[in-house]
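Worked problem 6 (solution included).
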Amino acid sequence: MGKRTDLTEYGYRKARARFLGDNDVCHLCGHPQADTVDHVVPVSKGTVDPSDQDNWLPAHGVNGCPTCGRKCNGEKSDRAAPRLTNSRDWYAGP
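Solution. The predicted structure is:
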């Protein structure tokens, strides 16, 4: 696959920085200081506009989470996002 210039253009990088300035809690581990955006519908599928912010969620990228050390977006890859794992299972029923 060729180089993805749409993800490196100035307008995209500026919008991403603004988005992360407002939303820095990683949707995968729940810790702050997310440094990249995770595309809910993967850009690799070729069916979405990479700059569509409705398809963005904050995540930790190659530098990893400063709290837990995970490289959340890399671990997730292009699979569906797992639910957050916490000390308590808030999703469990009564």
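Discussion: The longest strand covers residues 36-39.
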